[in-house]
């Protein structure tokens, strides 16, 4: 019973198996305790073989203590493995959220919240997070832990760079907006008057031309 699992689901299954095994062992431990108690009673009888009974009782005590110690170590190991899987799951979820924010148009508040949320699974600094996970890792989970730590460090670095960029952009003074004065209406009025004058002039010339033509036609006919 040395497996600790590489996923949260597997660790949960192992914890359940360990609990069932502990229940079976408790029955044996209770039986051993009853035998030891009976042996201690027999040792009070002067006709009994005290040395033999005492040695057997001592052997049962050592075996019971060793079994209890192994059960406790197993439970502690699985508890740490479950905590490790929780941190890994949270770290993976955090990385996925970070990639979305970095790929999108997340502002300074979104990046700050991303870095703050990292504290929820023990990420105050990438190097400390790596040391913490590797300390809890076993031979089975070391490769997984190394991969997750590298992903976390990459997202943390990109988020920190983007945060610094957004902070510089926010601190940069905005360019003043120059008001454009409205154009004077006088030139437009002058253009309108000029166009009106041209139209009237053409109309007058056309009328005068028609008048001359009407006067010339009778003369030509005669």
Automatic annotation (TrEMBL):
Family matches, as Pfam families: Spectrin_5
A GO CC term attached to the entry: cytoplasm
SUPFAM superfamilies registered for this protein in UniProt: Spectrin repeat
UniProt keywords, alphabetically: Guanine-nucleotide releasing factor
Molecular function GO labels: guanyl-nucleotide exchange factor activity
Domain named Guanine nucleotide exchange factor DBS-like spectrin-like: residues: 108-169
Protein name listed in UniProt: Guanine nucleotide exchange factor DBS-like spectrin-like domain-containing protein
Taxonomy of the source species: Eukaryota, Metazoa, Ecdysozoa, Arthropoda, Hexapoda
